[in-house]
Amino acid sequence: MFSPEVNTILIFVLMLAGIFMGYQLSLVLAGIGLLYGVFLFGPNYINTLIMGFLNVMQNYVLLAIPLFVLMGNIMQEIGAGKRIFDSLYVLAGRLRGGLAIATNLLATIFAACTGVVGASVVTVGTLGLPAMLSRNYDKKMASGLICAGGCLGVLIPPSIMIVVYGPIAGIPVGQLFMSVLPAGLLLSFTYTLYILARCYINPKMGPPITDEKRKEAFEKIGVFGLVSSFLIPVLIILAVLGSIFFGVAAPTEAAAVGVVASMVLGICYKELSWEKLKNSLSSTLTTTSMILTMSVGAIMFISTFTSMGGIDVVKNFILALPFGKWGIFLLMCIVVIFLGMLLDWIGIVYLVVPLYTPIAIELGFNPVWFATIMILLLQISYLTPPFALSIFYFKGIAPPDITTRDLYSAVLPYIGLQVLAISFCILVPQFVLWLPGLM
Fold it and tell me: Are 201 and 250 found together in one domain?
Protein backbone atom coordinates (compact mmCIF):
# COMPACT_ATOMS: atom_id res chain seq x y z
CA MET A 1 0.00 0.00 0.00
CA PHE A 2 2.92 2.34 0.79
CA SER A 3 6.48 2.49 -0.48
CA PRO A 4 9.20 0.79 1.62
CA GLU A 5 10.50 4.24 2.60
CA VAL A 6 7.12 5.35 3.95
CA ASN A 7 6.59 2.04 5.73
CA THR A 8 10.00 2.36 7.39
CA ILE A 9 9.18 5.84 8.69
CA LEU A 10 5.74 4.78 9.89
CA ILE A 11 6.93 1.69 11.76
CA PHE A 12 9.62 3.66 13.61
CA VAL A 13 7.15 6.42 14.48
CA LEU A 14 4.76 3.82 15.90
CA MET A 15 7.58 2.23 17.90
CA LEU A 16 8.70 5.56 19.40
CA ALA A 17 5.09 6.49 20.19
CA GLY A 18 4.56 3.22 22.05
CA ILE A 19 7.78 3.64 24.05
CA PHE A 20 7.06 7.25 25.06
CA MET A 21 3.51 6.30 26.05
CA GLY A 22 5.08 4.08 28.69
CA TYR A 23 4.39 0.60 27.33
CA GLN A 24 6.96 -2.17 27.78
CA LEU A 25 9.31 -2.42 24.82
CA SER A 26 8.62 -6.14 24.29
CA LEU A 27 4.87 -5.49 23.99
CA VAL A 28 5.43 -2.51 21.69
CA LEU A 29 7.66 -4.48 19.34
CA ALA A 30 5.40 -7.55 19.32
CA GLY A 31 2.24 -5.50 18.75
CA ILE A 32 3.69 -3.41 15.93
CA GLY A 33 5.33 -6.43 14.28
CA LEU A 34 2.10 -8.43 14.34
CA LEU A 35 -0.44 -5.72 13.47
CA TYR A 36 1.64 -3.92 10.85
CA GLY A 37 2.64 -7.23 9.27
CA VAL A 38 -1.00 -8.34 8.98
CA PHE A 39 -1.89 -4.88 7.65
CA LEU A 40 0.73 -5.16 4.89
CA PHE A 41 0.63 -8.84 4.00
CA GLY A 42 -2.73 -10.17 5.22
CA PRO A 43 -3.70 -12.73 7.90
CA ASN A 44 -1.49 -15.48 6.44
CA TYR A 45 1.52 -13.47 7.58
CA ILE A 46 0.92 -14.79 11.10
CA ASN A 47 2.19 -18.19 9.93
CA THR A 48 5.43 -16.56 8.77
CA LEU A 49 5.92 -14.96 12.18
CA ILE A 50 5.30 -18.28 13.93
CA MET A 51 7.87 -20.07 11.77
CA GLY A 52 10.44 -17.33 12.30
CA PHE A 53 9.89 -17.47 16.04
CA LEU A 54 10.25 -21.27 16.12
CA ASN A 55 13.50 -21.11 14.15
CA VAL A 56 15.00 -18.77 16.73
CA MET A 57 13.73 -20.75 19.71
CA GLN A 58 15.28 -23.89 18.24
CA ASN A 59 18.67 -22.19 18.06
CA TYR A 60 20.98 -24.46 20.05
CA VAL A 61 23.31 -21.61 21.05
CA LEU A 62 20.55 -19.76 22.94
CA LEU A 63 20.32 -22.69 25.35
CA ALA A 64 23.54 -21.32 26.85
CA ILE A 65 21.60 -18.36 28.30
CA PRO A 66 19.80 -20.20 31.14
CA LEU A 67 22.86 -22.39 31.75
CA PHE A 68 25.30 -19.49 32.16
CA VAL A 69 22.77 -17.61 34.31
CA LEU A 70 22.28 -20.71 36.48
CA MET A 71 26.03 -21.10 36.90
CA GLY A 72 26.28 -17.51 38.12
CA ASN A 73 23.31 -17.85 40.47
CA ILE A 74 24.77 -20.99 42.06
CA MET A 75 28.11 -19.22 42.52
CA GLN A 76 26.27 -16.37 44.21
CA GLU A 77 24.21 -18.65 46.47
CA ILE A 78 27.17 -20.72 47.69
CA GLY A 79 29.11 -17.60 48.73
CA ALA A 80 31.92 -17.91 46.19
CA GLY A 81 32.09 -14.12 45.92
CA LYS A 82 32.67 -13.67 49.66
CA ARG A 83 35.44 -16.26 49.69
CA ILE A 84 37.17 -14.59 46.74
CA PHE A 85 36.88 -11.15 48.37
CA ASP A 86 38.30 -12.44 51.67
CA SER A 87 41.35 -13.73 49.81
CA LEU A 88 41.80 -10.52 47.83
CA TYR A 89 41.33 -8.52 51.05
CA VAL A 90 44.43 -10.19 52.48
CA LEU A 91 46.47 -9.99 49.27
CA ALA A 92 45.79 -6.37 48.28
CA GLY A 93 44.79 -4.70 51.54
CA ARG A 94 48.23 -3.29 52.34
CA LEU A 95 48.26 -1.09 49.21
CA ARG A 96 46.82 2.40 49.11
CA GLY A 97 43.43 1.85 47.61
CA GLY A 98 43.99 -1.87 48.18
CA LEU A 99 40.40 -2.61 49.15
CA ALA A 100 39.17 -0.84 46.03
CA ILE A 101 41.61 -2.89 43.94
CA ALA A 102 40.38 -6.07 45.66
CA THR A 103 36.79 -5.01 44.90
CA ASN A 104 37.67 -4.41 41.25
CA LEU A 105 39.36 -7.82 40.98
CA LEU A 106 36.32 -9.42 42.59
CA ALA A 107 34.09 -7.67 40.04
CA THR A 108 36.30 -8.98 37.22
CA ILE A 109 36.30 -12.57 38.46
CA PHE A 110 32.61 -12.55 39.36
CA ALA A 111 31.76 -11.08 35.95
CA ALA A 112 33.13 -14.27 34.46
CA CYS A 113 30.95 -16.29 36.83
CA THR A 114 27.61 -14.57 36.26
CA GLY A 115 27.34 -13.11 32.77
CA VAL A 116 24.83 -10.49 33.97
CA VAL A 117 25.24 -7.06 35.56
CA GLY A 118 22.62 -7.17 38.31
CA ALA A 119 24.17 -10.11 40.18
CA SER A 120 27.68 -8.64 39.82
CA VAL A 121 26.77 -5.18 41.13
CA VAL A 122 24.74 -6.49 44.07
CA THR A 123 27.30 -9.13 45.11
CA VAL A 124 30.37 -6.93 44.71
CA GLY A 125 28.62 -3.96 46.33
CA THR A 126 27.41 -5.99 49.30
CA LEU A 127 30.91 -7.33 49.95
CA GLY A 128 33.15 -4.43 48.97
CA LEU A 129 31.25 -1.25 49.89
CA PRO A 130 30.95 -1.78 53.68
CA ALA A 131 34.64 -2.72 53.90
CA MET A 132 35.70 0.43 52.03
CA LEU A 133 33.35 2.84 53.80
CA SER A 134 34.34 1.50 57.24
CA ARG A 135 37.94 2.47 56.40
CA ASN A 136 36.99 5.96 55.20
CA TYR A 137 37.41 5.37 51.46
CA ASP A 138 36.08 8.14 49.24
CA LYS A 139 32.43 7.14 48.76
CA LYS A 140 32.17 8.43 45.20
CA MET A 141 35.29 6.62 44.05
CA ALA A 142 34.10 3.41 45.71
CA SER A 143 30.52 3.68 44.43
CA GLY A 144 31.54 4.51 40.87
CA LEU A 145 33.99 1.60 40.87
CA ILE A 146 31.32 -0.91 41.91
CA CYS A 147 28.87 0.37 39.29
CA ALA A 148 31.52 0.27 36.55
CA GLY A 149 33.06 -3.02 37.69
CA GLY A 150 29.63 -4.63 37.75
CA CYS A 151 29.17 -3.70 34.08
CA LEU A 152 31.92 -6.16 33.26
CA GLY A 153 29.27 -8.83 33.86
CA VAL A 154 27.91 -8.36 30.33
CA LEU A 155 31.37 -8.00 28.83
CA ILE A 156 33.77 -10.60 30.20
CA PRO A 157 32.79 -14.08 28.95
CA PRO A 158 30.62 -15.95 29.47
CA SER A 159 28.38 -12.97 28.72
CA ILE A 160 24.65 -13.29 28.09
CA MET A 161 24.78 -10.26 25.81
CA ILE A 162 27.30 -12.03 23.56
CA VAL A 163 25.19 -15.19 23.47
CA VAL A 164 22.27 -13.10 22.17
CA TYR A 165 24.37 -10.90 19.85
CA GLY A 166 26.27 -13.69 18.08
CA PRO A 167 23.36 -15.53 16.37
CA ILE A 168 21.72 -12.26 15.29
CA ALA A 169 24.94 -11.04 13.66
CA GLY A 170 25.78 -14.47 12.25
CA ILE A 171 29.07 -14.59 14.18
CA PRO A 172 30.16 -17.65 16.23
CA VAL A 173 29.67 -16.93 19.94
CA GLY A 174 33.06 -18.48 20.73
CA GLN A 175 34.84 -15.95 18.51
CA LEU A 176 33.02 -13.06 20.19
CA PHE A 177 33.92 -14.44 23.63
CA MET A 178 37.58 -14.38 22.66
CA SER A 179 37.45 -10.92 21.04
CA VAL A 180 35.70 -9.26 23.98
CA LEU A 181 37.86 -10.87 26.69
CA PRO A 182 40.99 -8.67 26.13
CA ALA A 183 38.80 -5.56 26.04
CA GLY A 184 37.11 -6.50 29.31
CA LEU A 185 40.44 -7.16 31.00
CA LEU A 186 41.75 -3.85 29.64
CA LEU A 187 38.85 -2.03 31.30
CA SER A 188 39.51 -3.79 34.60
CA PHE A 189 43.23 -2.93 34.38
CA THR A 190 42.38 0.69 33.57
CA TYR A 191 40.17 0.93 36.68
CA THR A 192 43.02 -0.45 38.80
CA LEU A 193 45.50 2.11 37.46
CA TYR A 194 42.97 4.89 38.08
CA ILE A 195 42.47 3.81 41.71
CA LEU A 196 46.20 3.53 42.34
CA ALA A 197 46.85 6.97 40.83
CA ARG A 198 44.11 8.70 42.83
CA CYS A 199 45.02 7.02 46.11
CA TYR A 200 48.74 7.69 45.77
CA ILE A 201 48.09 11.34 44.94
CA ASN A 202 45.63 11.62 47.84
CA PRO A 203 46.16 8.78 50.37
CA LYS A 204 43.02 9.77 52.28
CA MET A 205 40.87 8.52 49.41
CA GLY A 206 41.91 4.91 50.01
CA PRO A 207 43.98 4.23 53.13
CA PRO A 208 45.50 0.73 53.44
CA ILE A 209 44.40 -1.69 56.13
CA THR A 210 46.67 -2.06 59.15
CA ASP A 211 49.06 -5.01 59.53
CA GLU A 212 47.03 -6.11 62.53
CA LYS A 213 43.79 -6.27 60.55
CA ARG A 214 45.50 -8.05 57.68
CA LYS A 215 47.06 -10.62 60.03
CA GLU A 216 43.70 -11.19 61.69
CA ALA A 217 42.02 -11.76 58.31
CA PHE A 218 44.79 -14.13 57.21
CA GLU A 219 44.54 -16.22 60.37
CA LYS A 220 40.79 -16.47 59.87
CA ILE A 221 40.95 -18.05 56.40
CA GLY A 222 44.39 -19.76 56.54
CA VAL A 223 46.76 -20.63 53.69
CA PHE A 224 44.52 -23.35 52.26
CA GLY A 225 41.47 -21.08 52.35
CA LEU A 226 43.46 -18.25 50.76
CA VAL A 227 44.48 -20.44 47.82
CA SER A 228 41.34 -22.53 47.36
CA SER A 229 38.83 -19.67 47.68
CA PHE A 230 40.54 -17.75 44.91
CA LEU A 231 41.99 -20.48 42.71
CA ILE A 232 39.09 -22.94 42.34
CA PRO A 233 36.50 -20.46 40.91
CA VAL A 234 39.17 -19.10 38.56
CA LEU A 235 39.96 -22.63 37.36
CA ILE A 236 36.27 -23.25 36.68
CA ILE A 237 36.08 -20.10 34.58
CA LEU A 238 39.26 -20.97 32.70
CA ALA A 239 37.94 -24.48 32.06
CA VAL A 240 34.71 -23.11 30.59
CA LEU A 241 36.44 -20.53 28.37
CA GLY A 242 39.33 -22.85 27.53
CA SER A 243 37.00 -25.58 26.27
CA ILE A 244 35.42 -23.03 23.92
CA PHE A 245 38.76 -21.57 22.78
CA PHE A 246 40.32 -24.95 21.96
CA GLY A 247 37.17 -26.22 20.26
CA VAL A 248 36.58 -28.97 22.81
CA ALA A 249 33.02 -27.80 23.50
CA ALA A 250 30.46 -25.42 22.03
CA PRO A 251 29.33 -22.50 24.26
CA THR A 252 26.17 -24.41 25.24
CA GLU A 253 28.12 -27.52 26.24
CA ALA A 254 30.70 -25.41 28.11
CA ALA A 255 27.87 -23.69 29.98
CA ALA A 256 26.49 -27.07 31.06
CA VAL A 257 29.96 -28.05 32.32
CA GLY A 258 30.11 -24.74 34.22
CA VAL A 259 26.79 -25.50 35.96
CA VAL A 260 28.00 -28.95 37.05
CA ALA A 261 31.35 -27.51 38.23
CA SER A 262 29.63 -24.77 40.27
CA MET A 263 27.39 -27.39 41.91
CA VAL A 264 30.41 -29.57 42.75
CA LEU A 265 32.14 -26.50 44.19
CA GLY A 266 29.08 -25.78 46.34
CA ILE A 267 29.13 -29.35 47.64
CA CYS A 268 32.86 -29.06 48.44
CA TYR A 269 32.18 -25.79 50.30
CA LYS A 270 29.27 -27.56 52.08
CA GLU A 271 27.11 -24.61 51.07
CA LEU A 272 24.83 -26.10 48.39
CA SER A 273 21.43 -26.94 49.90
CA TRP A 274 18.11 -27.73 48.24
CA GLU A 275 16.85 -24.29 49.26
CA LYS A 276 19.80 -22.53 47.61
CA LEU A 277 19.46 -24.66 44.49
CA LYS A 278 15.76 -23.81 44.37
CA ASN A 279 16.55 -20.08 44.69
CA SER A 280 19.13 -20.38 41.90
CA LEU A 281 16.66 -22.10 39.58
CA SER A 282 13.90 -19.60 40.37
CA SER A 283 16.18 -16.62 39.68
CA THR A 284 17.38 -18.25 36.46
CA LEU A 285 13.80 -18.77 35.30
CA THR A 286 13.00 -15.08 35.93
CA THR A 287 16.05 -13.79 34.07
CA THR A 288 15.68 -16.19 31.14
CA SER A 289 11.95 -15.44 30.79
CA MET A 290 12.69 -11.71 30.67
CA ILE A 291 15.31 -12.18 27.94
CA LEU A 292 13.16 -14.53 25.85
CA THR A 293 10.05 -12.34 26.22
CA MET A 294 12.00 -9.42 24.81
CA SER A 295 13.35 -11.73 22.10
CA VAL A 296 9.85 -12.75 21.03
CA GLY A 297 8.73 -9.15 20.60
CA ALA A 298 11.92 -8.14 18.81
CA ILE A 299 11.76 -11.13 16.44
CA MET A 300 8.20 -10.24 15.42
CA PHE A 301 9.20 -6.62 14.81
CA ILE A 302 12.36 -7.45 12.84
CA SER A 303 10.52 -10.07 10.74
CA THR A 304 7.96 -7.49 9.62
CA PHE A 305 10.63 -4.82 9.18
CA THR A 306 12.72 -7.13 6.99
CA SER A 307 9.76 -8.39 4.94
CA MET A 308 8.70 -4.87 3.99
CA GLY A 309 12.24 -3.95 2.84
CA GLY A 310 13.08 -1.74 5.80
CA ILE A 311 16.63 -3.02 6.25
CA ASP A 312 17.51 -2.17 2.64
CA VAL A 313 15.99 1.29 3.07
CA VAL A 314 18.05 2.04 6.19
CA LYS A 315 21.18 0.50 4.69
CA ASN A 316 20.96 2.55 1.48
CA PHE A 317 20.20 5.73 3.44
CA ILE A 318 23.19 5.36 5.77
CA LEU A 319 25.61 4.38 3.00
CA ALA A 320 24.51 7.44 1.00
CA LEU A 321 25.47 9.84 3.82
CA PRO A 322 28.40 12.12 2.84
CA PHE A 323 30.44 11.32 5.96
CA GLY A 324 32.83 8.71 4.64
CA LYS A 325 33.55 5.30 6.13
CA TRP A 326 34.66 6.48 9.57
CA GLY A 327 32.08 9.23 9.76
CA ILE A 328 29.30 6.66 9.30
CA PHE A 329 30.97 4.42 11.88
CA LEU A 330 31.05 7.30 14.39
CA LEU A 331 27.38 8.05 13.68
CA MET A 332 26.44 4.42 14.35
CA CYS A 333 28.37 4.52 17.64
CA ILE A 334 26.58 7.70 18.74
CA VAL A 335 23.19 6.16 17.94
CA VAL A 336 23.99 3.08 20.07
CA ILE A 337 25.11 5.26 23.00
CA PHE A 338 21.95 7.40 22.72
CA LEU A 339 19.69 4.33 22.56
CA GLY A 340 21.50 2.95 25.61
CA MET A 341 20.33 5.96 27.62
CA LEU A 342 16.71 5.03 26.94
CA LEU A 343 16.39 1.28 26.25
CA ASP A 344 17.53 -2.05 27.63
CA TRP A 345 20.41 -3.71 25.78
CA ILE A 346 18.24 -6.64 24.62
CA GLY A 347 15.95 -4.37 22.62
CA ILE A 348 18.90 -2.43 21.22
CA VAL A 349 20.66 -5.61 20.08
CA TYR A 350 17.60 -6.93 18.26
CA LEU A 351 16.88 -3.54 16.68
CA VAL A 352 20.38 -2.42 15.74
CA VAL A 353 22.39 -5.55 14.91
CA PRO A 354 20.30 -6.63 11.85
CA LEU A 355 20.66 -3.07 10.51
CA TYR A 356 24.30 -2.41 11.37
CA THR A 357 25.96 -5.73 10.49
CA PRO A 358 25.38 -5.59 6.69
CA ILE A 359 26.34 -1.91 6.66
CA ALA A 360 29.60 -2.64 8.52
CA ILE A 361 30.45 -5.43 6.06
CA GLU A 362 29.63 -3.14 3.11
CA LEU A 363 31.98 -0.51 4.52
CA GLY A 364 34.76 -3.08 4.83
CA PHE A 365 34.90 -3.45 8.63
CA ASN A 366 35.81 -6.80 10.15
CA PRO A 367 32.48 -8.13 11.52
CA VAL A 368 34.05 -9.57 14.70
CA TRP A 369 35.86 -6.30 15.47
CA PHE A 370 32.74 -4.26 14.69
CA ALA A 371 30.59 -6.48 16.94
CA THR A 372 33.13 -6.12 19.75
CA ILE A 373 32.99 -2.32 19.57
CA MET A 374 29.18 -2.39 19.61
CA ILE A 375 29.19 -4.68 22.66
CA LEU A 376 31.60 -2.32 24.43
CA LEU A 377 29.31 0.63 23.66
CA LEU A 378 26.27 -1.28 24.90
CA GLN A 379 28.13 -1.91 28.16
CA ILE A 380 28.38 1.87 28.67
CA SER A 381 24.57 2.05 28.64
CA TYR A 382 24.54 0.57 32.16
CA LEU A 383 26.19 3.77 33.42
CA THR A 384 24.59 6.48 31.28
CA PRO A 385 21.46 8.14 32.73
CA PRO A 386 18.53 8.16 32.73
CA PHE A 387 18.32 4.37 32.22
CA ALA A 388 21.66 3.51 33.95
CA LEU A 389 20.64 0.10 35.29
CA SER A 390 23.93 -0.40 37.13
CA ILE A 391 23.24 2.70 39.21
CA PHE A 392 19.77 1.53 40.14
CA TYR A 393 21.06 -1.94 41.08
CA PHE A 394 23.68 -0.31 43.29
CA LYS A 395 21.21 2.12 44.88
CA GLY A 396 19.27 -0.87 46.21
CA ILE A 397 22.19 -1.95 48.43
CA ALA A 398 23.81 1.47 49.12
CA PRO A 399 23.42 3.37 52.42
CA PRO A 400 20.92 6.28 52.42
CA ASP A 401 23.63 8.98 52.45
CA ILE A 402 24.74 7.94 48.93
CA THR A 403 22.16 9.63 46.72
CA THR A 404 21.33 8.99 43.08
CA ARG A 405 22.87 12.37 42.25
CA ASP A 406 26.10 11.23 43.94
CA LEU A 407 26.09 8.11 41.80
CA TYR A 408 25.54 10.02 38.55
CA SER A 409 28.65 12.10 39.26
CA ALA A 410 30.58 9.10 40.66
CA VAL A 411 30.38 7.13 37.41
CA LEU A 412 31.57 9.98 35.17
CA PRO A 413 35.33 9.24 35.56
CA TYR A 414 34.68 5.57 34.78
CA ILE A 415 32.68 6.46 31.68
CA GLY A 416 35.70 8.50 30.61
CA LEU A 417 37.98 5.50 31.20
CA GLN A 418 35.63 3.32 29.15
CA VAL A 419 35.74 5.80 26.26
CA LEU A 420 39.55 5.73 26.36
CA ALA A 421 39.62 1.92 26.35
CA ILE A 422 37.12 1.71 23.50
CA SER A 423 39.12 4.28 21.52
CA PHE A 424 42.20 2.09 21.95
CA CYS A 425 40.27 -0.95 20.65
CA ILE A 426 39.14 1.10 17.64
CA LEU A 427 42.62 2.40 16.85
CA VAL A 428 44.32 -0.99 17.44
CA PRO A 429 41.86 -3.55 16.04
CA GLN A 430 44.37 -6.38 16.32
CA PHE A 431 44.08 -6.09 20.11
CA VAL A 432 40.59 -7.62 19.96
CA LEU A 433 41.22 -9.85 16.92
CA TRP A 434 44.35 -11.75 17.91
CA LEU A 435 42.62 -14.28 20.19
CA PRO A 436 39.86 -15.15 17.70
CA GLY A 437 42.57 -15.49 15.08
CA LEU A 438 44.20 -18.26 17.14
CA MET A 439 41.01 -20.33 17.36
Answer: yes
